[in-house]
Design brief:
The protein is α/β, with parallel strands linked by helices and about 400 residues long. The protein is built from 15 helices and 13 strands. The chain folds into 2 domains: about 210 residues, Rossmann fold, CATH 3.40.50.2000; about 180 residues, Rossmann fold.
Length: about 400
């Protein structure tokens, strides 16, 4: 008797580390049944595969060093030329042309796991028999960064029309997509799978020192305008000048690192604000915190807020996509404030100067911590990945 065929699945994403979408993909890949799925992952840019990714996946990339060109000076120059040609083709030819030239293999399911470049690439698939899925991780009405990946809004709309299902990571993200592209009928909400057991295990891998005379705050994310650290630091500066005791650790890298570092140095915040860069396992920092703060201008469905809740860490956040789904419409599981500096400062001042308020938020976070199960959250993902009956093919 022949063994059943596996679903051949393609995932396309920009990179493998650095953000919430990348951690979600890692979680999905680590929880798939490889007796059922045969997975190939393409990144837009060549990266080193993190050790935390499963060995069963096949990894490929589009832009990077091509081994057949060699590693010498001539090889490196040829690589630059090849990549420039690929960029030219991406911007001046159809998605179908780019896909044909750069994506190898035939798949039952093809997934654009992040909006933007990956979505345009997968939309160009020449395989009419494959099921095509797109993930949207951000509220595109409030942060339409994907415009750089498409010629115009009409092309972006046409690309999304190709997909059989568009998985939005929160109801707010889905509603934003409805408003941006009203005729799309393939939208659905699929919440990010988070492995609560693995997060709890990793949170005790090492011990993080805490300041005993201050409230220890942590925030984790890319250092870019979307995350709002440029407005968080002035808030913390004002609170310090008002003699509020805190110690803030910011974990992450990004193009605003130098700008934020200069602000910290110029305002003598080095004793209470720390830019720690990329940390491969941030969970001990999260577990050691008295408070997690999210200062984002826009989100989709915050992975790190979910992780904070799993560890029972109190959350103060601006009101962006997905927060009411995580923390309750009336702040049943955390504190949600209007998305501006004034309200965020007022909330932080209240929490940092009131042990009772912080204790109340702690109880709310602990109450929510039991609601995240990897098995329950993986079920709709696996259902989407199982396309038509491959054994009939």
């Amino acid at each position: 008797m022949n063994a059943p065929k596996k679903y051949k699945v393609l995932f396309v994403i920009g990179q493998l580390t650095g953000g919430g979408a990348e951690r979600v993909l890692e979680t999905i890949l680590n929880n798939l049944d490889y007796n059922i799925f045969d997975v190939t992952v393409y990144t837009v840019q060549e990266v080193a595969i993190p050790a935390s990714y499963p060995a069963q996946i096949t990894y490929r990339y589009i832009f990077g060093a091509h081994s057949f060109l060699g590693k010498g000076i001539v090889g490196r120059l040829c690589n630059k030329v090849v990549n420039k040609i690929k960029i030219f083709i991406y911007h001046h030819f159809s998605a179908q042309w780019f896909y044909r030239l750069n994506v190898k293999g035939r798949y039952d399911v093809e997934v654009a796991f992040i909006e933007g470049y990956a979505t345009r690439i997968v939309s160009g698939s020449t395989n009419r028999m494959s099921k095509k899925l797109a993930w949207v991780h951000i509220d595109l009405l409030n942060n339409h960064w994907t415009q750089v990946a498409f010629k115009d809004l009409a092309e972006e709309h046409d690309c999304y029309k190709v997909f059989d299902k568009i998985a939005c990571v929160s109801k707010t993200v889905e509603n934003a997509m409805h408003r941006l592209f009203p005729d799309l009928t393939s939208l659905t909400t699929v919440y990010n799978p988070i492995n609560e057991v693995e997060i709890t295990r990793k949170s005790s891998e090492y011990v993080v020192d805490k300041k005993k005379d201050a409230t220890n705050i942590v925030t984790i994310g890319r250092l870019d305008p979307q995350k709002g650290y440029d407005r968080l630091l002035p808030i913390m500066n004002e609170l310090k000048n008002e003699n509020v005791k805190f110690d803030l650790s910011i974990l992450g890298t990004g193009n605003e690192y130098d700008k934020l570092k200069k602000y910290i140095e110029a305002n003598n915040l080095g004793d209470c604000v720390h830019l720690l860069g990329f940390v491969s396992n941030p969970y001990p920092f999260l577990a050691a915190a008295d408070l997690f703060v999210c200062s984002s201008r826009a989100e989709g469905y915050s992975t790190v807020v979910t992780e904070a809740l799993i560890l029972g860490i109190p959350v103060v956040t601006t009101n962006c996509s997905g927060m009411m789904e995580l923390l309750g419409e009336h702040g049943e599981y955390g504190m949600i404030v209007e998305n501006n500096s004034k309200c965020l400062k007022e909330a932080l001042a209240e929490v940092l100067t009131s042990k009772d308020k912080l204790s109340e938020l702690k109880k709310k976070a602990l109450a929510r911590s039991h609601d995240f199960s990897i098995a329950r959250l993986m079920s709709p993902v696996e259902k989407m990945l199982k396309s038509h009956n491959i054994n009939d093919k």
